[in-house]
Amino acid sequence: MEKKHFVTLLMGVVGGLLFALGMCMCLLPEWGMFRAGVGFGIVGAVLLLATWLVYRKMSGKAPIRVNAKIIGKILYGILGALVFGAGMCLVLAVEGMMLVGILVGIVGIVLLLCLIPMCLGWKESKQQ
Question: Looking at residue 96, what DSSP letter applies?
């Protein structure tokens, strides 16, 4: 295993655990730890962002230039995740909204799947 992959693995696991624990602390009122959960979530998200930046640096890749296209893709991804999450909330938390929640969740999945060609682009295969 290369050093960059090992470092990325460790940072990603710690960041993901902190983020997930923070979300649990925020979303489970029985715990009564909303403010601490927000802090854990922010620390986890920052660590995950740092993981991505460290991996790019260790791989020798150029830094990403921020432009309107990149910001649009990020906002589109956030929108897709929110629609998907709203569908899950309707299914799990709102009485009698299971069918609507499933449909909203499917729309969210389709939005997120459309993000793949948006980021990678279309490539034609070579015909022999």
Answer: T
Count Cβ neighbours within 10 Å for each residue of 80-110 and write b for 16 or more, e otherwise.
beebbeebeebbeeeeeeeeebeebbeebee
CA of 119: how far to CAs of 18, 59, 71, 94, in Å?
Answer: 28, 20, 12, 34
How far apart are alpha carbons 28 and 58 in whole angstroms? 38
pLDDT tens per residue, range 28-67 = 888 889 999 999 999 999 999 999 999 998 988 887 788 9
Amino acid in the structure at residue 10: L
- The sign of the torsion formed by the CA atoms of 58, 61, 65, 66 equals negative
Distance CA 107, CA 20 (A): 24
pTM (predicted TM-score): 0.63
Instruction: Tell me the residue type at 100.
Output: V
Q: Nearest to residue 45, comparing CAs of 17, 25, 75?
A: 17
